TrEMBL record:
InterPro entries: Lipid/polyisoprenoid-bd_YceI, TTHA0802/YceI-like_sf. This is Polyisoprenoid-binding protein. Coiled coil: none annotated. SMART domains: YceI. Residues 7-183 form the Lipid/polyisoprenoid-binding YceI-like domain. Belongs to the UPF0312 family. Pfam families: YceI. SUPFAM superfamilies: YceI-like. Gene3D superfamilies: Lipid/polyisoprenoid-binding, YceI-like (2.40.128.110).
Length: 190
């Protein structure tokens, strides 16, 4: 599928949004590098292929929809109970405050490049705090789009998770990744 001008909607049926964490500290061998997926989210892309500065992207993620998909590394295998505990911790008042802040949003302020290699700069709002973020992306020419952004949790007032008296902690920087399998026209079936 060749990308053409238009307004498209995104969501879990057409794309994936992942958050990948790393470990730090003296006890990092005990923990896991996590892959967390947003399971309830929506987005809209206004695409103007010949004039990327006229294009825009907006995404809204339900903070309560973050699910642990994978845990690699560590001294033991990540169990279902571990996944459930991590998901509870994410929702807790120490991290995302999901009750007070039910969504994470991104609104582009500038799009540059081509469908094959692009950057989207915008405001990422986490816990009610907007800060600039840049998404780096690429397309394969057949409509498959992928990309990433590095987010420093402390910028948004999130204290990275710690355990064992701070010997094990999540790295402050996390990587947000996306993969769009297909763009669905906004005026198409829902």
């Amino acid at each position: 599928m060749t990308l053409t001008d238009g307004t498209y909607r995104l969501g879990p049926s057409t794309a994936r949004l992942l958050i990948k964490t790393g470990r730090a500290g003296l006890g990092r061998r005990a923990g896991h590098d996590l892959t967390i997926e947003a399971t309830r989210w929506s987005g809209e892309v206004v695409l103007v292929v010949g004039a990327p500065d006229s294009s825009s992207v907006s995404v809204s993620i339900e903070t309560g929809s973050l699910k642990v998909r994978e845990g690699t590394g560590g001294l033991k295998t990540l169990t279902d109970a571990d996944r459930a505990e991590i998901e509870r911790t994410l929702a807790d008042k120490t991290l995302l405050h999901t009750a007070e802040h039910p969504t994470i949003t991104f609104r582009s302020t500038r799009v540059t490049g081509t469908p094959q290699s692009f950057e989207i700069t915008g405001d990422l709002t986490i816990k009610g705090r907007p800060h600039p973020a840049t998404v780096h992306g690429k397309g394969n020419g057949d409509g498959l789009l992928s990309g990433w952004a590095t987010v420093t949790q402390s910028t948004w007032g999130i204290k990275p998770y710690t355990a064992f008296l701070g010997a094990l902690r999540l790295a402050d920087e996390v990587r947000m990744e996306f993969e769009v399998a297909r763009l669905e026209p906004a005026d198409g079936p829902r």
